[in-house]
From TrEMBL:
PANTHER family: CYTOSINE PERMEASE, CYTOSINE TRANSPORTER CODB. This is Putative hydroxymethylpyrimidine transporter CytX. It is found in: Membrane. Keywords: Membrane, Transmembrane, Transmembrane helix. Pfam families: Transp_cyt_pur. It comes from Sporolituus thermophilus DSM 23256. The chain crosses the membrane at residues 12-34, 40-64, 76-102, 122-139, 151-168, 220-239, 251-272, 293-311, 317-337, 349-368, 374-396.
Length: 411
């Protein structure tokens, strides 16, 4: 049903998700693929992002059709208690993402100002970047956010072209012999999990779309193009310099303020989405709270965490996200698109069978990682989890816990 809040169009989603993809964290993730070399690395990036972004958009379609946030949509399959569990997990991962994004940006910004002006204050940069994210959220959709975000992403686009020109100035990176040591399947997986990490968020935005088709295409194109581009920059930079951090390249190119602009703007246009969606998920735990107010608190918490945390376990963090949310959305997408189960049952408190299949899926994820399959772990585990859920669906629908009411809960 359309209402006055459903104002976001194709261009808004295109810019929103392109802006979300342009970040230092994505460049660093692309740098992890350096053992494959450029050609195989690009193949893994494209394949992984095609898979991951398509799954991402399918989650967004549910949000547009049902006009519900991402985590609330899990009530369709798992019930109220299941959604509570996933809300907690999502809030935790989003606080982690907020901190990681602030850390990576603050480190890069600090390196730039230290080189240019001997200004060495990492903690201050954490606070500055956290404050800008706070301001971005406070601006809100009703405060002209759409126009400001589009202008910021256009500026980012120009700055990123400059960065790309610097990275690809040395064309020998295209033919350097790969160092080896990373299976192609792991590279695909590291490309899949980045868009997959947005699955618990996308419907928070697509629920405000005018049309499902425009939201889907805008989101797919914006994220696929932006994220593939960032991964490619990270891969090329790591091959050329041995580091995926673009800071050194930007400093060597004398980009100066442009370098700071890329770091700060890209972090703000990405991380405000993490903090905002953490606020949306938290309201599932405490209904009635203002999601924007909670998002502002989450930003403060993420900023404080950034002051004491580090990024040494970044790859482990990415894979942990895949293990939790790949089987979760395999079940939800199977229910919604195959079993045609598309409405929330207010009486359903917990679907124990669905939760059991999800737990099996988490275990399967890590097993598939060890097998080094060409498509990584996400696709096999989603297929296996979805198939198991589909085959056992008739039994699972009876293994539920419901409110005590005169009407039957399921069946």
């Amino acid at each position: 049903m359309m209402n006055d809040n459903n104002t976001l169009q194709f261009k808004h989603f295109l810019f929103l998700w392109f802006g979300a993809a342009v970040s230092v964290a994505e460049i660093l993730a692309g740098g992890l693929l350096v053992p494959l070399g450029f050609t195989a690395g690009i193949a893994a990036i494209i394949l992984g992002h095609f898979i991951g972004t398509t799954l991402l958009v399918m989650g967004g379609i549910i949000g547009t059709r049902e006009r519900i946030p991402a985590i609330e949509s899990t009530r369709i399959s798992f019930g109220a208690y299941g959604t509570t569990l996933f809300s907690v997990l999502n809030v935790l991962q989003l606080i982690g993402w907020t901190a990681i994004m602030i850390i990576s940006a603050a480190k890069s910004a600090n390196e730039i100002t230290k080189m240019l002006w001997q200004f060495d204050y990492f903690a201050l940069w954490c606070i500055i970047i956290g404050g800008l994210i706070f301001l971005w959220i406070a601006l809100g959709r009703e405060g002209g956010w759409k126009k400001v975000n589009m202008a910021a992403v256009l500026l980012l686009f120009g700055l990123t072209i400059m960065l790309s020109a610097m990275v690809f100035k040395d064309i020998s990176i295209l033919t350097k012999v790969p160092a080896g040591g990373m299976p192609f399947s792991e590279a695909v997986e590291l490309s899949v999990v980045m868009p997959l990490s947005w699955l618990p968020l996308i419907a928070d935005y697509t629920r405000f779309a005018q049309q499902a088709k425009n939201a889907a295409w805008g989101s797919w194109l914006g994220y696929f193009l932006g994220s593939c581009w960032m991964y490619t920059i990270g891969l090329a930079a790591a091959i050329s310099t041995g580091k995926a951090d673009p800071t050194d390249i930007m400093l060597a190119a004398n980009l100066g303020f442009a370098a700071l602009g890329i770091i700060v703007l890209s972090t703000v246009t990405t991380t405000f989405m993490d903090a905002y969606s953490a606020g949306v998920s938290f309201t599932n735990l405490r209904p009635g709270l203002n999601e924007k107010l909670v998002a502002l608190v989450i930003t403060v918490v993420g900023t404080l965490l950034a002051l004491v945390a580090d990024m040494e376990q970044y790859e482990v963090f990415l894979l942990a996200i895949g293990s939790v949310f790949a089987p979760l959305y395999a079940i939800l997408l199977t229910d919604y698109f195959i079993r045609k189960k598309r409405s929330i049952n207010p009486q359903l408190l917990a679907n124990w069978g669905a939760l059991a299949v999800w737990a099996i899926g988490v275990a399967l994820y890590y097993w598939f990682l060890k097998l080094d399959l060409v498509f990584g772990a996400t696709i096999p585990v989603m297929f296996a989890t979805g198939l198991l859920y589909l085959v056992t669906g008739g039994y699972i629908d009876k293994w539920v816990y419901c409110k005590k009411t005169p009407k039957p809960c399921c069946g």
